[in-house]
Amino acid sequence: MRRIFFLSIVIFAACNGARGTTNEGARRDTPHPSTSGDGGVATDEAHQDEAAHEALPTRVRLAPDVVRAAGVKTAPVTLAALPLTVTLNGEVIADPDHSAKIATRVSGRIVDVRFKEGERVKQGALLAVIESPELARARAAFTSASSKARTARLNAERLSRLAEKGLAASQEQATADSEAQALEAEARAARQTLSAFGADGGAGDGAGAARLELRAPITGWVLSRDAVRGQTVGADHVLATIADLGRVFFQARLFEKDLGRVRVGSAAEVRLNAYPEEVFTGHIEFVGRQLDVQARTVTARIPLDNKNDLLKVGLFGTANIVVPDAEVRPQRPVVPLQAVTQIAGKDVVFVRQPDEDYEVHAVTLGRSAAGRVEILQGVRPKELVVVDGVFTLKSAVLRSTFSDQE
Description:
With 406 residues, this protein is of the alpha+beta class. The protein has helices at 22-29, 47-53, 64-70, 133-164, 170-197, 390-405; strands at 7-11, 58-62, 73-76, 78-80, 85-94, 99-103, 108-113, 120-121, 126-131, 211-215, 220-225, 232-233, 238-243, 247-255, 267-272, 275-283, 286-287, 297-305, 316-322, 332-336, 341-343, 346-352, 358-362, 364-369, 372-377, 384-388.
C-alpha cells in the first residue's frame, strides 16, 4: 500500500520542529507573506492564518513517469484584479436542437418495448413495436391504390400505342390517361398517409401489415419512458424523450435590475449544487425577449460542454456572469479555477516545490471570474500551482490516509 501507482508520500505535521531538509528549513525561517483581504501583503502577524496553510500535513512525490502519464502541469500564481460578476440561479436543460420525443403517431397497442429509461440508445435502434388496425387499413388502401394505378397506367400506355397506329380513338386514349393520373394521385396520397404514421409502403404479410416499428431518430440518453407491453395508446402518445447530452444549456433567471449589465457573449462560470467542486465555463448565447411578470425575470441561456458526463437535466446551480465595471479593483493573487480542489472539506491547491515534490496548501478563496479565482490566503505570487493532474495528486493524498489507517 506504500507504493500504489509508484507514489511515495511523506507526511509532515504542522506542529513539528525544524524541517528535515535544508530547503524546508529555509522556508520555515523565511517569512511567508500571504495576501490580506485588501489585496496587500500580510505581515508576520498573519502567520496564525499560515498555520492553516500547513494544517494539511501532506506532501506528495510522484515518479517522473507517473507525472508524464497523468499530464501534470503547473501555472504560476499571478496578481490580477478580477472583473465584477453577477450571480444568477438556474438549472440544466437539454439542447432542444439535439432532443427528440418519440410519439406513436397512430392509435394501437404496444406489443414490444426494447428500451429502458436512463440508458443510451443509438440512432436507428428499435425502441418499440405498435400493433394498429388503423395502420393495417392504411397499408391495404395504399396497396389497392398502387395496384389500380399500375393497371390504369398500363392500359393508358396500350391505348396510346394503338392510337398512334389508328386502331384506337384519341378520346378513348385521353380518358384512360386521365383515369391513370387520378389513380396515381390516390396512390401517392395513400403513401403519404403511411409516411405520416411513420411506416413505409411495404404491404407486409399477416400481422406484419398492422405493426409499426418505432426507432430512435438520434443517438442519446432516454430521459423518460411511458411504454409497457400491452398498453393501448393514442396517436399523440409520447413513448420516450431522448436527448444528446454532449452539449447542454444552463438556463439562468436574470432579474430585470441586472438586465442592462448582462449581455450576449458575456463570460459565465456555472457551479451546480450536485458538484460544488466542479466549475463549468461558457458564454451567454441568448437573453430572452419576454419578462416573466410574476418572477420579474427573463431567461439567459448558457451552452456548456458536458465534461466527464456530469451534467444531468434538471440539476440546479448558479452562474457567475462577468459584467462591465467602472470601479478600479485591487490586484490579488489568482489561480485558474481547475487548480482548486477539496480535501477533508478544505479548499486546497498543490504547489510544486524546487525538489519536485507537491505540497498541499490550504487556501481561502475570494471571488471568481473568467476562469480564475482569487486566493486571499495560502499561496504567494509566482508559486507554481498544479492546474492539470490535480485529481491524481488528490488521489495520492487520500491513498496515503488509507495506508496510515491500515
